């Protein structure tokens, strides 16, 4: 049995931190896991910038409320879920993701949670499990699933490489160059065709 594991930001929806950077006028917050492989370092840096500017969860949620899925993402997910189980495995947070999950038709999401002070300051975060993407893929494999994985960033590479089939999607040229063995796609139709081919499904 197959199960498909997808990253969220950059694959199905725009990067939340980039959107917030543009609205807040803080260019430093454009940095994402495409640029910084060390997620803990990246998040601590982000939290420090938010504190410095007096910004909290509400301000970020106000921006997220206006974000729409990438064009074609909802249709891609709907078709994919018609013939295989799908889990979105993301390093984002429940407090960020829920409005976006509604717009995507409530797919299954495994992510993390924020630590938020009563007055809204983001003080920290709690990972669901260490190496959450790789750990989830290995756990799924341990209970009999063949995994197919796709993502765009450094933090997706472990689950992509550990899966029976793995694909890069709308990634950077640097990651493409560093991992030439991984097929890289730019369009949902290409990714859909690759997943169907791996599963032996003919249109």
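^ structure tokens above, recovered residues below v
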């Amino acid at each position: 049995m197959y199960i498909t594991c997808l990253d969220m930001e950059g694959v199905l929806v725009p990067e939340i931190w980039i959107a917030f950077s543009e609205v807040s006028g803080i260019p430093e917050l454009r940095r994402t896991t495409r640029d910084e492989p060390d997620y803990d370092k990246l998040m601590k840096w982000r939290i420090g910038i938010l504190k410095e500017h007096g910004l909290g969860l509400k301000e970020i949620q106000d921006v997220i409320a206006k974000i729409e899925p990438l064009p074609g993402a909802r249709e891609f997910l709907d078709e994919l879920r018609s013939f295989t189980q799908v889990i979105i495995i993301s390093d984002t947070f429940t407090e960020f993701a829920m409005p976006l999950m509604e717009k995507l038709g409530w797919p299954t999401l495994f992510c993390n949670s924020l630590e938020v002070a009563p007055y809204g300051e983001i003080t920290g975060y709690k990972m669901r499990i260490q190496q959450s993407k790789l750990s989830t893929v290995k756990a799924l494999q341990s209970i009999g699933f063949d995994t197919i994985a796709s993502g765009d960033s450094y933090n997706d590479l472990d689950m992509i490489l550990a899966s029976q089939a793995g694909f890069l999607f709308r990634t950077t040229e640097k990651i493409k160059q560093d991992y030439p063995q991984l097929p890289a796609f730019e369009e949902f139709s290409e990714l859909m065709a690759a997943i169907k081919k791996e599963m032996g499904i003919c249109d």
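The beta strands are 2-6, 85-93, 108-116, 122-126, 146-151, 165-169, 184-185.
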